[in-house]
Amino acid sequence: MSKLAESLNKIQTLEELSDGITVLHRIHPMAKMITTIFFLVVVISFDRYQISGLVPFFIYPILMMAIGEIPYKSVLSRLVIALPFSFFAGLSNPILDRQTAFLLAGLPISWGLLSFFSILLKTVLTVMAVLIMVATTPMDQLARQLVRLRIPKVFVMQLMLTVRYLTIIIAEASSMMNAYHLRSVKQKGIDLNHVGTFMGQLLLRSYSRAERVYLAMKCRGFNGEYHFAQAHAVRKSDILYCIGLCTGFFIFRWCNLSMIIGRLLGQ
Amino acid sequence: MIRIRNIGFCYPDGNRALNDISIDIEKGSNVAVVGANGAGKSTLLALLVGLHTLLEGQIEIDGKAVRKDSLDEIRKMVGFVFQNPDDQLFMARVYDDIVFGPRNFGYSAEKITEMADTALEIMKIGHLKDRAPHKLSGGEKRNVAIAAVLAMNPEVLLLDEPSSYLDPKSRRNFILAMERLPHTKIIATHDLDLVLDLCDRVIVMSQGKVIADGEPFKLFFDEDLMERSGLELPLSLQTRK
Question: Which of A174, A202, B3, B157 is most enclosed, with most CB atoms within 10 A?
Fold first, then answer.
C-alpha cells in the first residue's frame, strides 16, 4: 500500500470509529461538543508556567478513550502530527527565558523550560480532546451541532465538503503515484522536472472528479444546502454528562490536585 | 411518457455531441441506448436529468418540460445512476448516502427512514448499511448507488454503463435486481448481452444521431448497422450466426 493510501486509510479509520455503540457514542453530540469546548477553554486558561495543574486533566482523555473503546494508537499517532508544530513554537522559550525557577534533584529548571512543557502539555490535552470527540461522533452530526451553535452554514458546509473531497484528492494522487512509480522503477520520489506536470494533472483530475461528484449530488436534489442528520433528543443523561464533566474541569482548574496529593503524601 | 423532440447539444469546447434527436419512450419500458464511444449516449442521459442545459429542442417527462425552473421536480421523477459508483457515493456510511437524496427533497424523518429501508430491501443490501462505501466491492458499490437513487422513489431510472466495474456474478445479480424493478429504465451501455437480457427496445446512436431504433434481436443481426455504429454482435448471438 502506498503512503498516500495509508494516509487515506488513517483519515477514514477515525471516522469509522464514530459508528461505535459505546455509552460515549450515545451521548448527544451537542453535550460532547460543549464539554470539549469547555475543556479546551479551561486547559488553555492555565498560566504559561503551570504544569502541575494540567497533569490531572489527563484523566479525561484516558477515561474517555477507555469508555469509548477508542484504540490509544489511533489517537496517539495523530497526536504526533500536531506535536511538532507546538514543539517548534515553544522551542525558543528555554533559550530566551533562562532564569531558574526551581531545582529538581539538583538540576536547575528554568521558567522557559516550564513554559515549553506547558505548551506541549496543552497541545497534547487539547488535540486528544478534539480527536476523542471526532472519534465518537459522526461528522455530519458534529456539523449539525456547529450550525446550531450559530456557526454560518456556509463555513460548516465548506468543512464537510473539505473532509469529503480530501479523500477524493488523496485517492486520485495515490493512483497517479502508483502509475508514476510503475514506470520509473529506480526512482524514489517524483523527479523535480515532473513535479509541475504531476501537480497540474492532479489539480485537473481532482477538479473533474469533484465536478462529477457535484453533478451526482445535484441529481439527488442538492441545491447548495446540506441537510444534516437529526440527532436523538437531549436526555437527562446527556445533561448530566455535560454538567458533571464541566464541573469536574472547573474543580480541577481551581484546586491544584497535584499539589494537594503531593502535600498529603508529604504529611 | 418521455418525449424528446429535435434536441441538439454542443459542448463549450465546440464538440457537437447530439444532432436533431427525437425519441418517445413509453412508461415502464426498458430501453437501451447503444453506440461507440463518443456517440452521445451519456450526453443524452445527462440532458434528460438537466445536467447540461438544453440548447436546441425540447424534452418532456410525464408532461413536464425539462427546464431550469422544473429541475427539482424532474430530478424527483428521474434517478440517474452514474457510470462510476465512486462519483456518486461520497458519504462516510452507506446509509448516509442512501438518505442523502430524500433529505434534500425535504421528506420527514419517518418518511426518509421508510424510503431508505425500502431501497435497501429492493437491492437486498440491508447488511451493508453501516459499511463505508469505499470499502465495498465493485458490485456492492453499484448496488448501493442504485439503492441511493431508488430511495428517492423515482419513476424513471437512467443507468450509465451499469455493467462496468462488475464481475460476472455481480453482473448477473444486477440483471436480476433490474428485472424486479417496475421503473422505466434507460440504459446507456456497450454491453449488448446485457441489452438482450434486460431491454425490449434498443436505440443505436452514432456521431450524435439516432441511426436505428427497434427490437434488440432484429438490430443486432444487422451486420451493416453494427459496422456503422462501431459495435459487434453480442457474444451470446455469435454462435447462432
Answer: B157
